[in-house]
From TrEMBL, chains A, B:
InterPro entries, alphabetized: Homeodomain-like_sf, HTH-type_TetR-like_transc_reg, HTH_TetR, Tet_transcr_reg_TetR-rel_C_sf, TetR_C
Keywords (A to Z) from UniProt: DNA-binding, Transcription, Transcription regulation
Highest taxon, organism lineage: Bacteria
A Pfam family annotated for this UniProt entry: TetR_N
Organism of origin: Streptomyces sindenensis
DNA-binding positions: 37-56
This protein's record includes keyword Ribosomal protein: no
Name by which UniProt lists this protein: TetR/AcrR family transcriptional regulator
Gene3D superfamilies hit by this protein: Homeodomain-like, Tetracycline Repressor, domain 2
Protein backbone atom coordinates (compact mmCIF):
# COMPACT_ATOMS: atom_id res chain seq x y z
CA UNK A 1 0.00 0.00 0.00
CA UNK A 2 1.40 3.39 -0.96
CA UNK A 3 1.64 5.68 2.07
CA UNK A 4 -0.77 8.60 2.10
CA UNK A 5 1.13 11.86 1.54
CA UNK A 6 0.59 13.80 4.77
CA UNK A 7 2.51 16.69 6.35
CA UNK A 8 4.02 14.08 8.70
CA UNK A 9 5.27 11.78 5.93
CA UNK A 10 6.64 14.77 4.02
CA UNK A 11 8.58 15.83 7.13
CA UNK A 12 9.89 12.29 7.58
CA UNK A 13 10.94 12.28 3.95
CA UNK A 14 12.77 15.61 4.35
CA UNK A 15 14.53 14.25 7.42
CA UNK A 16 15.61 11.12 5.52
CA UNK A 17 16.91 13.16 2.59
CA UNK A 18 18.95 15.37 4.86
CA UNK A 19 20.32 12.34 6.75
CA UNK A 20 21.34 10.81 3.40
CA UNK A 21 23.00 14.08 2.29
CA UNK A 22 24.93 14.37 5.53
CA UNK A 23 25.96 10.71 5.41
CA UNK A 24 27.26 11.09 1.84
CA UNK A 25 29.33 14.19 2.71
CA UNK A 26 30.74 12.54 5.85
CA UNK A 27 31.62 9.27 4.10
CA UNK A 28 33.43 10.98 1.22
CA UNK A 29 35.44 12.94 3.79
CA UNK A 30 36.32 9.79 5.73
CA UNK A 31 36.99 7.15 3.07
CA UNK A 32 37.19 9.10 -0.20
CA UNK A 33 34.84 9.19 -3.16
CA UNK A 34 35.93 5.92 -4.77
CA UNK A 35 35.22 3.89 -1.63
CA UNK A 36 31.92 5.60 -0.86
CA UNK A 37 29.01 3.33 -1.83
CA UNK A 38 25.23 3.66 -1.84
CA UNK A 39 25.16 0.83 0.73
CA UNK A 40 27.56 2.72 2.97
CA UNK A 41 25.55 5.93 2.71
CA UNK A 42 22.32 4.04 3.50
CA UNK A 43 23.82 2.32 6.54
CA UNK A 44 25.17 5.56 7.92
CA UNK A 45 21.92 7.46 7.30
CA UNK A 46 19.86 4.67 8.88
CA UNK A 47 17.72 4.09 5.78
CA UNK A 48 17.35 1.14 3.41
CA UNK A 49 19.45 1.34 0.27
CA UNK A 50 16.24 1.07 -1.81
CA UNK A 51 15.26 4.46 -0.41
CA UNK A 52 18.38 5.96 -1.95
CA UNK A 53 17.97 4.11 -5.26
CA UNK A 54 14.37 5.37 -5.44
CA UNK A 55 15.46 9.01 -5.19
CA UNK A 56 18.88 9.08 -6.90
CA UNK A 57 20.47 7.29 -9.86
CA UNK A 58 24.06 7.39 -8.50
CA UNK A 59 26.26 8.43 -5.60
CA UNK A 60 27.35 11.45 -7.66
CA UNK A 61 23.70 12.55 -7.80
CA UNK A 62 23.38 12.17 -4.01
CA UNK A 63 26.49 14.29 -3.51
CA UNK A 64 25.26 16.95 -5.94
CA UNK A 65 21.95 17.24 -4.06
CA UNK A 66 23.83 17.35 -0.76
CA UNK A 67 25.66 20.45 -2.00
CA UNK A 68 22.46 22.03 -3.30
CA UNK A 69 20.88 21.41 0.10
CA UNK A 70 23.88 22.97 1.87
CA UNK A 71 23.84 25.98 -0.44
CA UNK A 72 20.12 26.44 0.19
CA UNK A 73 20.58 26.21 3.96
CA UNK A 74 23.49 28.66 3.91
CA UNK A 75 21.50 31.09 1.78
CA UNK A 76 18.48 30.92 4.11
CA UNK A 77 20.73 31.72 7.06
CA UNK A 78 21.81 34.99 5.48
CA UNK A 79 18.30 35.87 4.41
CA UNK A 80 17.99 34.76 0.79
CA UNK A 81 14.48 33.96 -0.39
CA UNK A 82 13.16 30.37 -0.41
CA UNK A 83 14.57 28.37 -3.32
CA UNK A 84 17.47 30.77 -3.81
CA UNK A 85 20.80 29.02 -3.42
CA UNK A 86 22.76 32.18 -2.68
CA UNK A 87 22.22 35.74 -1.52
CA UNK A 88 23.10 38.47 -4.00
CA UNK A 89 26.45 40.25 -3.97
CA UNK A 90 26.03 43.45 -1.96
CA UNK A 91 25.98 46.78 -3.78
CA UNK A 92 27.33 49.43 -1.44
CA UNK A 93 28.49 51.54 -4.36
CA UNK A 94 32.11 50.46 -3.77
CA UNK A 95 32.71 47.76 -6.38
CA UNK A 96 36.15 46.70 -5.14
CA UNK A 97 34.95 46.40 -1.53
CA UNK A 98 31.86 44.40 -2.53
CA UNK A 99 33.87 41.98 -4.68
CA UNK A 100 36.52 41.54 -2.00
CA UNK A 101 33.81 40.67 0.52
CA UNK A 102 32.34 37.93 -1.66
CA UNK A 103 35.71 36.57 -2.84
CA UNK A 104 36.99 36.41 0.73
CA UNK A 105 33.86 34.43 1.65
CA UNK A 106 34.58 32.09 -1.26
CA UNK A 107 38.15 31.63 0.00
CA UNK A 108 36.76 30.72 3.43
CA UNK A 109 34.34 28.19 1.92
CA UNK A 110 37.05 26.57 -0.19
CA UNK A 111 39.36 26.36 2.82
CA UNK A 112 36.66 24.86 5.08
CA UNK A 113 38.11 21.46 6.08
CA UNK A 114 34.69 19.90 6.75
CA UNK A 115 33.67 20.29 3.11
CA UNK A 116 37.00 20.12 1.32
CA UNK A 117 37.04 16.40 0.48
CA UNK A 118 33.50 16.16 -0.95
CA UNK A 119 33.88 19.45 -2.84
CA UNK A 120 37.12 18.25 -4.41
CA UNK A 121 35.63 14.82 -5.16
CA UNK A 122 32.59 16.21 -6.95
CA UNK A 123 34.65 18.76 -8.88
CA UNK A 124 37.20 16.12 -9.93
CA UNK A 125 34.42 13.82 -11.14
CA UNK A 126 33.12 16.68 -13.28
CA UNK A 127 36.61 17.23 -14.73
CA UNK A 128 36.63 13.71 -16.19
CA UNK A 129 32.87 13.11 -16.65
CA UNK A 130 31.37 15.63 -19.08
CA UNK A 131 27.75 14.86 -18.22
CA UNK A 132 28.29 15.21 -14.48
CA UNK A 133 30.39 18.33 -15.08
CA UNK A 134 27.59 19.96 -17.07
CA UNK A 135 25.10 19.18 -14.29
CA UNK A 136 27.47 20.60 -11.67
CA UNK A 137 27.76 23.83 -13.65
CA UNK A 138 24.03 24.07 -14.36
CA UNK A 139 22.83 23.35 -10.84
CA UNK A 140 25.58 24.68 -8.58
CA UNK A 141 27.92 27.04 -10.41
CA UNK A 142 25.76 29.02 -12.85
CA UNK A 143 23.44 30.40 -10.13
CA UNK A 144 26.54 31.77 -8.37
CA UNK A 145 27.99 33.23 -11.56
CA UNK A 146 24.69 34.98 -12.31
CA UNK A 147 25.16 37.03 -9.13
CA UNK A 148 28.46 38.38 -10.46
CA UNK A 149 26.81 39.30 -13.76
CA UNK A 150 24.13 41.24 -11.86
CA UNK A 151 26.68 43.10 -9.72
CA UNK A 152 28.95 43.89 -12.69
CA UNK A 153 25.99 45.19 -14.73
CA UNK A 154 25.09 47.51 -11.87
CA UNK A 155 28.73 48.64 -11.83
CA UNK A 156 28.50 49.42 -15.54
CA UNK A 157 25.42 51.53 -14.93
CA UNK A 158 27.26 53.33 -12.15
CA UNK A 159 30.20 53.96 -14.48
CA UNK A 160 32.62 51.78 -12.47
CA UNK A 161 33.07 49.20 -15.24
CA UNK A 162 33.58 50.02 -18.91
CA UNK A 163 30.42 49.70 -20.99
CA UNK A 164 32.12 47.45 -23.57
CA UNK A 165 33.06 44.79 -20.99
CA UNK A 166 31.08 41.51 -21.10
CA UNK A 167 30.19 40.80 -17.45
CA UNK A 168 30.02 37.03 -18.10
CA UNK A 169 33.67 37.10 -19.18
CA UNK A 170 34.79 39.70 -16.62
CA UNK A 171 33.64 37.54 -13.73
CA UNK A 172 36.07 34.83 -14.82
CA UNK A 173 39.00 37.17 -14.09
CA UNK A 174 37.75 37.14 -10.50
CA UNK A 175 36.78 33.55 -9.80
CA UNK A 176 39.08 31.84 -12.35
CA UNK A 177 42.29 32.66 -10.44
CA UNK A 178 40.76 31.60 -7.10
CA UNK A 179 39.52 28.28 -8.41
CA UNK A 180 42.77 27.67 -10.30
CA UNK A 181 44.79 28.15 -7.12
CA UNK A 182 42.44 25.94 -5.13
CA UNK A 183 42.03 23.16 -7.69
CA UNK A 184 45.70 22.91 -8.64
CA UNK A 185 47.06 23.83 -5.18
CA UNK A 186 49.71 26.14 -6.63
CA UNK A 187 49.96 28.55 -3.68
CA UNK A 188 47.99 29.32 -0.50
CA UNK A 189 44.48 30.68 -1.00
CA UNK A 190 44.20 33.71 1.31
CA UNK A 191 42.13 36.86 1.83
CA UNK A 192 45.14 38.91 0.71
CA UNK A 193 45.16 36.99 -2.57
CA UNK A 194 41.42 37.60 -3.08
CA UNK A 195 41.98 41.32 -2.52
CA UNK A 196 44.86 41.45 -4.99
CA UNK A 197 42.88 39.65 -7.68
CA UNK A 198 40.06 42.19 -7.32
CA UNK A 199 42.46 45.15 -7.47
CA UNK A 200 44.34 43.74 -10.48
CA UNK A 201 41.14 42.87 -12.36
CA UNK A 202 39.51 46.26 -11.81
CA UNK A 203 42.64 48.35 -12.31
CA UNK A 204 44.34 46.25 -14.97
CA UNK A 205 48.01 45.37 -15.27
CA UNK A 206 48.94 48.30 -17.51
CA UNK A 207 49.85 51.68 -15.99
CA UNK A 208 47.00 54.18 -15.82
CA UNK A 209 48.38 57.29 -17.44
CA UNK B 1 73.66 -11.14 -14.89
CA UNK B 2 73.16 -7.39 -15.07
CA UNK B 3 73.33 -6.14 -18.67
CA UNK B 4 76.35 -4.02 -19.50
CA UNK B 5 75.30 -0.39 -19.98
CA UNK B 6 76.12 0.34 -23.62
CA UNK B 7 74.82 2.97 -26.05
CA UNK B 8 72.64 0.20 -27.50
CA UNK B 9 71.03 -0.78 -24.19
CA UNK B 10 70.48 2.88 -23.36
CA UNK B 11 68.69 3.36 -26.69
CA UNK B 12 66.58 0.26 -26.06
CA UNK B 13 65.72 1.61 -22.63
CA UNK B 14 64.67 4.98 -24.12
CA UNK B 15 62.53 3.17 -26.67
CA UNK B 16 60.85 1.12 -23.92
CA UNK B 17 60.15 4.19 -21.83
CA UNK B 18 58.56 5.99 -24.73
CA UNK B 19 56.48 2.92 -25.63
CA UNK B 20 55.27 2.78 -22.01
CA UNK B 21 54.43 6.51 -22.02
CA UNK B 22 52.49 6.20 -25.26
CA UNK B 23 50.67 3.09 -24.04
CA UNK B 24 49.64 4.86 -20.82
CA UNK B 25 48.28 7.90 -22.69
CA UNK B 26 46.41 5.72 -25.20
CA UNK B 27 44.90 3.44 -22.55
CA UNK B 28 43.62 6.31 -20.42
CA UNK B 29 41.99 7.76 -23.55
CA UNK B 30 40.37 4.44 -24.41
CA UNK B 31 39.24 2.98 -21.09
CA UNK B 32 39.59 5.84 -18.61
CA UNK B 33 42.00 6.34 -15.74
CA UNK B 34 40.28 4.05 -13.23
CA UNK B 35 40.42 1.03 -15.55
CA UNK B 36 43.99 1.65 -16.70
CA UNK B 37 46.35 -0.79 -14.96
CA UNK B 38 50.11 -1.34 -14.93
CA UNK B 39 49.44 -4.77 -16.48
CA UNK B 40 47.43 -3.18 -19.29
CA UNK B 41 50.12 -0.58 -19.98
CA UNK B 42 52.82 -3.29 -20.02
CA UNK B 43 50.86 -5.51 -22.43
CA UNK B 44 50.20 -2.63 -24.80
CA UNK B 45 53.81 -1.40 -24.68
CA UNK B 46 55.15 -4.94 -25.23
CA UNK B 47 57.22 -4.98 -22.03
CA UNK B 48 57.03 -7.06 -18.88
CA UNK B 49 55.15 -5.43 -16.02
CA UNK B 50 58.26 -5.73 -13.84
CA UNK B 51 59.95 -3.25 -16.20
CA UNK B 52 57.29 -0.69 -15.31
CA UNK B 53 57.40 -1.46 -11.59
CA UNK B 54 61.19 -1.05 -11.68
CA UNK B 55 60.92 2.47 -13.09
CA UNK B 56 57.69 3.83 -11.62
CA UNK B 57 55.85 3.48 -8.28
CA UNK B 58 52.32 3.93 -9.73
CA UNK B 59 50.29 4.49 -12.89
CA UNK B 60 49.97 8.15 -11.91
CA UNK B 61 53.78 8.39 -12.00
CA UNK B 62 53.86 6.80 -15.47
CA UNK B 63 51.29 9.29 -16.71
CA UNK B 64 53.16 12.23 -15.18
CA UNK B 65 56.39 11.17 -16.95
CA UNK B 66 54.46 10.68 -20.17
CA UNK B 67 53.40 14.33 -20.04
CA UNK B 68 56.92 15.49 -19.17
CA UNK B 69 58.19 13.50 -22.16
CA UNK B 70 55.55 15.06 -24.42
CA UNK B 71 56.33 18.55 -23.16
CA UNK B 72 60.04 17.96 -23.77
CA UNK B 73 59.42 16.69 -27.31
CA UNK B 74 57.11 19.61 -28.12
CA UNK B 75 59.65 22.08 -26.77
CA UNK B 76 62.48 20.53 -28.82
CA UNK B 77 60.36 20.85 -31.97
CA UNK B 78 60.09 24.59 -31.53
CA UNK B 79 63.75 24.96 -30.64
CA UNK B 80 63.94 25.02 -26.85
CA UNK B 81 67.20 23.86 -25.33
CA UNK B 82 67.68 20.25 -24.16
CA UNK B 83 65.97 19.59 -20.83
CA UNK B 84 63.71 22.62 -21.21
CA UNK B 85 60.06 21.64 -21.15
CA UNK B 86 58.81 24.75 -22.91
CA UNK B 87 60.08 27.57 -25.10
CA UNK B 88 59.89 31.07 -23.64
CA UNK B 89 57.03 33.46 -24.35
CA UNK B 90 58.06 35.71 -27.24
CA UNK B 91 58.91 39.34 -26.53
CA UNK B 92 58.08 41.37 -29.63
CA UNK B 93 57.53 44.48 -27.54
CA UNK B 94 53.74 44.09 -27.90
CA UNK B 95 52.65 42.52 -24.61
CA UNK B 96 49.03 41.91 -25.59
CA UNK B 97 49.99 40.24 -28.88
CA UNK B 98 52.61 38.03 -27.20
CA UNK B 99 50.21 36.91 -24.48
CA UNK B 100 47.42 36.24 -26.98
CA UNK B 101 49.79 34.07 -29.01
CA UNK B 102 50.68 31.89 -26.04
CA UNK B 103 47.15 31.73 -24.60
CA UNK B 104 45.74 30.75 -28.01
CA UNK B 105 48.31 27.95 -28.16
CA UNK B 106 47.20 26.85 -24.68
CA UNK B 107 43.59 26.83 -25.86
CA UNK B 108 44.62 24.59 -28.78
CA UNK B 109 46.47 22.20 -26.47
CA UNK B 110 43.55 21.97 -24.07
CA UNK B 111 41.15 21.33 -26.95
CA UNK B 112 43.37 18.64 -28.53
CA UNK B 113 41.17 15.51 -28.46
CA UNK B 114 44.14 13.10 -28.50
CA UNK B 115 45.36 14.37 -25.13
CA UNK B 116 42.14 15.51 -23.49
CA UNK B 117 41.33 12.34 -21.54
CA UNK B 118 44.77 11.79 -19.97
CA UNK B 119 45.19 15.50 -19.22
CA UNK B 120 41.83 15.60 -17.47
CA UNK B 121 42.55 12.33 -15.65
CA UNK B 122 45.88 13.50 -14.26
CA UNK B 123 44.49 16.92 -13.31
CA UNK B 124 41.47 15.37 -11.58
CA UNK B 125 43.71 13.01 -9.61
CA UNK B 126 45.69 16.03 -8.44
CA UNK B 127 42.47 17.76 -7.34
CA UNK B 128 41.71 14.97 -4.86
CA UNK B 129 45.26 13.72 -4.10
CA UNK B 130 47.36 16.49 -2.52
CA UNK B 131 50.69 14.69 -2.97
CA UNK B 132 50.11 13.97 -6.64
CA UNK B 133 48.77 17.50 -7.14
CA UNK B 134 51.92 19.01 -5.65
CA UNK B 135 54.08 16.87 -7.94
CA UNK B 136 51.99 17.89 -10.96
CA UNK B 137 52.50 21.56 -10.10
CA UNK B 138 56.20 21.18 -9.36
CA UNK B 139 57.09 19.16 -12.45
CA UNK B 140 54.63 20.29 -15.10
CA UNK B 141 52.93 23.55 -14.18
CA UNK B 142 55.56 25.67 -12.40
CA UNK B 143 58.02 25.60 -15.35
CA UNK B 144 55.24 26.99 -17.56
CA UNK B 145 54.25 29.66 -15.03
CA UNK B 146 57.88 30.79 -14.73
CA UNK B 147 57.75 31.79 -18.41
CA UNK B 148 54.89 34.19 -17.68
CA UNK B 149 56.81 35.69 -14.78
CA UNK B 150 59.79 36.31 -17.08
CA UNK B 151 57.63 37.94 -19.78
CA UNK B 152 55.69 40.08 -17.29
CA UNK B 153 58.93 41.26 -15.63
CA UNK B 154 60.23 42.33 -19.04
CA UNK B 155 56.92 44.16 -19.56
CA UNK B 156 57.44 45.97 -16.27
CA UNK B 157 60.91 47.06 -17.38
CA UNK B 158 59.38 48.27 -20.66
CA UNK B 159 56.74 50.23 -18.73
CA UNK B 160 53.84 48.11 -20.07
CA UNK B 161 52.94 46.68 -16.66
CA UNK B 162 52.75 48.70 -13.44
CA UNK B 163 55.84 48.38 -11.25
CA UNK B 164 53.77 47.46 -8.16
CA UNK B 165 52.19 44.40 -9.82
CA UNK B 166 53.39 40.98 -8.63
CA UNK B 167 53.98 38.97 -11.85
CA UNK B 168 53.33 35.67 -10.05
CA UNK B 169 49.83 36.87 -9.19
CA UNK B 170 49.22 38.72 -12.46
CA UNK B 171 49.76 35.55 -14.50
CA UNK B 172 46.84 33.94 -12.70
CA UNK B 173 44.48 36.51 -14.23
CA UNK B 174 45.55 35.10 -17.59
CA UNK B 175 45.69 31.35 -17.10
CA UNK B 176 43.16 31.07 -14.23
CA UNK B 177 40.15 31.94 -16.41
CA UNK B 178 41.28 29.58 -19.20
CA UNK B 179 41.81 26.64 -16.88
CA UNK B 180 38.59 27.37 -15.01
CA UNK B 181 36.61 27.28 -18.25
CA UNK B 182 38.34 24.10 -19.38
CA UNK B 183 38.22 22.24 -16.07
CA UNK B 184 34.62 23.11 -15.21
CA UNK B 185 33.37 23.19 -18.83
CA UNK B 186 31.35 26.36 -18.26
CA UNK B 187 31.52 27.72 -21.83
CA UNK B 188 33.51 27.00 -25.01
CA UNK B 189 37.25 27.64 -24.83
CA UNK B 190 38.11 29.66 -27.96
CA UNK B 191 40.80 31.96 -29.36
CA UNK B 192 38.34 34.87 -29.06
CA UNK B 193 38.03 34.12 -25.34
CA UNK B 194 41.82 34.02 -24.92
CA UNK B 195 42.06 37.42 -26.62
CA UNK B 196 39.37 38.94 -24.42
CA UNK B 197 41.00 37.67 -21.24
CA UNK B 198 44.31 39.28 -22.26
CA UNK B 199 42.62 42.60 -23.12
CA UNK B 200 40.58 42.65 -19.89
CA UNK B 201 43.58 41.73 -17.72
CA UNK B 202 45.88 44.33 -19.24
CA UNK B 203 43.31 47.11 -19.53
CA UNK B 204 41.29 46.37 -16.41
CA UNK B 205 37.53 46.46 -15.99
CA UNK B 206 37.34 50.07 -14.80
CA UNK B 207 37.16 52.94 -17.32
CA UNK B 208 40.49 54.57 -18.12
CA UNK B 209 39.88 58.24 -17.56
Amino acid sequence: MAPTKTPDSSRRSDRSRRAIHDAALALVTEVGYQRTTIEGIAARAGVGKQTIYRWWPSKAAVLMDAFLDLAGRAAEEVGAGPGETAPGIPDTGDLAADLKLVLRATVDELNDPTLEAPTRALTAEGVVDAKLGAEFVHKLLDPQLALYVTRLRAAQEAGDVRADVDPRIALELLIGPLMHRWLLRTLPLTHAYADEIVDYAIGGLAPRT
